Amino acid sequence: MQSKAAACGLLGVRKGSWTAEEDLLLRQCIEKHGEGNWYQIPQLSGLNRCRKSCRLRWLNYVRPNIKRGQFTMDEVDLIIRLHKLLGNRWSLIAGRLPGRTTNDVKNYWNTHINKKFPSPQKITRDGIAQIAVTTTTTVIKPKPWIFKGSSSWPMMKEHEMVEKPKEDDKGFWQECVLLEKLENKFFHNSGIQSAYTQEKN
DNA sequence: AATAAGCACAACCGCTCTCCG
DNA sequence: ACGGAGAGCGGTTGTGCTTAT
Hints:
- Keywords: Activator, DNA-binding, Nucleus, Repeat, Transcription, Transcription regulation.
- Pfam families: Myb_DNA-binding.
- It comes from Nepenthes gracilis (Slender pitcher plant).
- GO terms for molecular function: DNA binding.
- Its main location: nucleus.
- The N and C termini lie far apart (about 45 Å).
- The protein is an all-alpha fold.
- It is elongated and about 50 Å long.
- It has two domains: about 5-60, Arc Repressor Mutant, subunit A (Orthogonal Bundle), CATH 1.10.10.60; about 75-190, no CATH class.
- Helices cover about 50% and strands about 0% of the residues.
- The protein has helices at about 5, 20-35, 40-45, 50-60, 75-85, 90-95, 100-115, 125-135, 170-190, 195-200.
- The relative contact order is 0.10.
- The structure holds a DNA duplex.
């Protein structure tokens, strides 16, 4: 496994909050050289930052089309259902919410949802609570799946497929269908065409 | 007005996964 | 098949802001 020094390329890299100048350098560098080449980004950009720090900053803050501010009820609804289905797979959950980052979703879950509703028994009144109570599907903690045929939920890259649920797992499939409907409603309300819709078209 | 406590979010750390030689 | 390097992910911590006392 990699050492910390190897992970960060060199010792003595800058830590802590990013400045506007650093954000600008990072943005310009990625616009010029493209996303993904994180090993070279610190050198190419002139930033004295660990590559992991650069990646995180880009994904969670600098990247265009990041949606900030309050989560809508539809988004919260979707997060709760996806979490019930996928567990703490924040990257997958965030991937279903356009403009929301993994960190955003994870932080929101930990600070709002998880604290408010630590266990289903304590949920009683509002809409979020009812959603959480009425679904009893067991949390599935799989490797990512890909669905063949007409269903496109969840949408994963083909190479990510490792396993998929049993065909007779009715609870799971019902939840998938429900989520697909919820997503369509969410995308319709937000005026965004979902990847699901795009794929069908 | 001062200070403590709580909250929200940004960032870091360490581990696993994936790719490639 | 194996090992090393880089990328990605989730858990945790740090920090700054807000609210309560």
